[in-house]
Fold this protein.
Amino acid sequence: MEEKRLTGDKMKHRNLIELESGGTVTLSKDGNIIDVNSLFCSMMKMDKETLLSMSFADLLLSEESVEQAPYRFNLVKSKQIFICERKMNQSDRSKTTVEMKLQKTPNGTSQSPSHDSSEVKKPELLEKNGIAKKNGINEDEAHFIKILAHDLINPFNVILGYLGLLTSEFETYDRATIKKKIELINRASTDAYKLLQEVLTWSCSHSGRILFAPEILNLKKTCQHSIDLLEPISQKKQIDITNLIDDQLDVHTDKDILQTIIRNLLTNALKFTNEKGVIEVKSFLQNHQITISVKDNGNGIPANELASVLENDQCKSTTGTSREQGSGVGLTICKMLAEKLGGKIWAESKVGFGSTFFVAIPNHT
């Protein structure tokens, strides 16, 4: 009788997870996969039998995620709900980004409803999810907020994960291990801070609260200021940034806005340029208009994606050549600020050869 009841419970559980609107994976206490629904199989491009022979750590792409797994399971065991976004390996060696909500079940196992996080970032789904056009929030704003929420999860997961490990395992770590974890916490904190800075700039620009205060500027010195600010990143990747702007070229525009545009274009170039690469900053003057170009020899952008990289509704999380994380908001900010200056921005690119971003602004010196 008891065996029949248990069989019935298993069937009930199986039917319930198959009815889930997203992929669902059930894990044993030690992190092995013990059940999945068909949507999770489709998401990972694997059959059920293959997944049931794996541990959850086998699916994780990031070494940091694997290292933090014991701490995460401790949170779940204490009945906390843990929400994260993880890059995972699929069967065809491609990668997918999955948002997961890990929680403890009554029988002591862990269960996680999951979905492809790129899906929730599609603007056409925002209205369906009840985010857009509520309380005066338009679709662009709702889309941006959704991206922000996802992209802030990752650095804070790293910060909380490693702080949790340091708190619980401090006495067992040597100095080198502690130093490495502190460096990772510092990097994640910096990423979160930069993202929040981008949000503030985007918000001010979107609401029209950025003041336009033009002045006469030496263009080479203005661009060099942004190059110098990013020197720690360029040095770390051994990337040479060359400022080829004419020493005598002046521009009449807003200093803070122009520097923000140049800094974001350089940040983007550094992100997608391989170590020991080259970035060139140039300019030319034509018919009272100055055009500044930032050229890299990085990975390049596929032709079918080039037209959309500067669009508000196409912001998406991206990973750089050294696995730098980003929301894709920086280029959108550049476009909005260029328009604030009465200018425009566009890009040219070839896969395998790099990209060049141009910003043209009026000049009346």
In short: The CA atoms of residues 178 and 356 lie 41 Å apart. The two ends are 91 Å apart (CA to CA). The first strand starts at residue 23 and ends at 27. The chain is about 45% helix and 25% strand.
